[in-house]
Amino acid sequence: MLSFLSRHSSILLIAAGFAGFAFPDLSASALPFLPYVLFTLMLFTLIGIDQRALVKAIIDPGAWVYALVHCGVTTIVVSIFGIAFGASTELLMAATAVCATGTLFATPAIVRSVGFAPLKAMAFTITSTLMMPVALYVNLVMLSTDEFTLDLQDYCLRLFIFIFGPMLFSYTIHKLVPEHRLSRIHGKLAQFTIILVFSFPFGLTGQYRWLWDSDRSFAITMLFIAFAICVLFFVIGLALYWNKGRSEAYVAAITSGNRNVLLTYSVAGAFLGPLYLPLIGALQLPIYMQPVLVKFFLKRDGKRTAKA
């Protein structure tokens, strides 16, 4: 059963989003449990990664250059488009907050489900998350008309719990458990890891359903904006890393498109404006369509290579 779910995870992620939209009450019930899922997801993913290799990947300047692209370049591009199309301040605040947001912690598992090694995605996830408070602060200074404070104490606590905590656990497990046994265990955990990701589209799309029921036309507008933002993130990552090889370009594109919007909301709260929650609900569908599209592109490229 786990093998079947893992093989078809790309489609099932989209189905989970639709399920959350169809059953908003169940979706809202799942929302409080997502932080616990984040911790488990990070731990299971990190168990399969050499911690020394991960540390080297994190201190690599290239990972921090990616974080600047992830938070800074996307903010600039989205702001230019928003101003050009006359977006309101509230919409720009919501959109640039998404730009500042670090990568979704589930991204390494999603990258693995597509067929790529998760190490680079994990390094990108950590550096972009560490970059997030700076980018978010700058964006809010530029756009907010009210005084605000970021809950940095809470943010640092979450960083420790969701990143350094699992890294410490993983390091301890690698020290105590023989590698051959750990390899067999992780083979099973890898299939279970992607199933945990299903909870994110399911738990967040219910928020978009409330908007759909109250203002259908506005909800459709937000969905179009969400698709445009997600496509833009994906294209930026793909274009800037294409010369480093298709594998790294697709990893960067997926990582750029996935955003840990729930963590951002917990840090900045009401200062993100009234359109942030509707926007992140609408973002769930385009975010989780990415693995399907990447698999399609890879399959098409494989056929072309075989014919050549």
TrEMBL record:
It comes from the Bacteria. Keywords: Membrane, Transmembrane, Transmembrane helix. The keyword Nucleotidyltransferase does not apply. InterPro entries: Na+/solute_symporter_sf (IPR038770). Signal peptide: none annotated. The keyword Transmembrane helix applies. The chain crosses the membrane at residues 32-51, 63-85, 91-111, 123-145, 157-177, 189-212, 218-242, 262-289. This is Sodium Bile acid symporter family protein. It comes from Grimontia celer.
